[in-house]
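Forum > Structural Biology > Help requests

Title: Can anyone predict the 3D structure of TctD-like protein?

Hi all, first post here. I have the sequence for TctD-like protein but no way to get a structure on my laptop. I'd be grateful if someone could post the structure tokens.
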Amino acid sequence: MKLQFSMLKNTNVTVMLIDDEKKLLESLCKYLESKKFKVLTAQSSEIALSILEKIIPDILIVDIMMPEKTGYDFIISIKNNRRLKAIPFIFCTAKGMTQDRIKGYKLGCRAYITKPFDPEELISVINNNLSQNKNINNIRTITTEIKRIRLIIENKNMIHISFTSRERSILVHIINGKTNKDIAKNIKIGVRNVEKYVTRLLDKTHSRNRTDLVKFAYKFYKELRANDGNRTRE
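Reply #1:
Sure, ran it for you. Structure tokens for TctD-like protein below:
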């Protein structure tokens, strides 16, 4: 147990307790603070929501049987709030029936602890969930970074692709959903010539088909529109 305490000694984690039982709330708050957690408390769902407008904790510990709005209803409110819906939560309640647990897990609780419970169990569950959150956040960060690098590479590749005014004009028509026949009529060249230009554009942009070409062209849409008036032949 000493090892666990040393792990928590420098923690900067904020836990929010939501329970209408004042004595339990106070004792649990005192215990968590002794383990160096920052603790927020609320004796009702409404008070909790008011606090959450200003502060977002790292994890919520929620009772289910509360007056006015139950813990289930409180979590539904959280889930419907874009700013709060990602906060992990644990149900800590006297409702221990199987159907209660199932309902809790369906709402997305990370754990379901029944009263009475050992505070050390709660500490272990909190630590386990925070560790999972850290891993999830690391994965998200890596994924975001990969996407960012891909976008940089993609944009650099696009920057080095040069288009003639005619190619830009044809790209704009493709974005607007025009067929080769429509394009030929609008810019007054033969359909075969349009087909040649489209083939050249597919090669230049490394697009597999017309759909990919449209996706590529959208990224240049503003630039292409600025050059759409220039229809000078090569």
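The beta strands are 14-18, 38-42, 59-62, 89-93, 111-114. The longest strand covers residues 14-18.
Shout if anything looks off.
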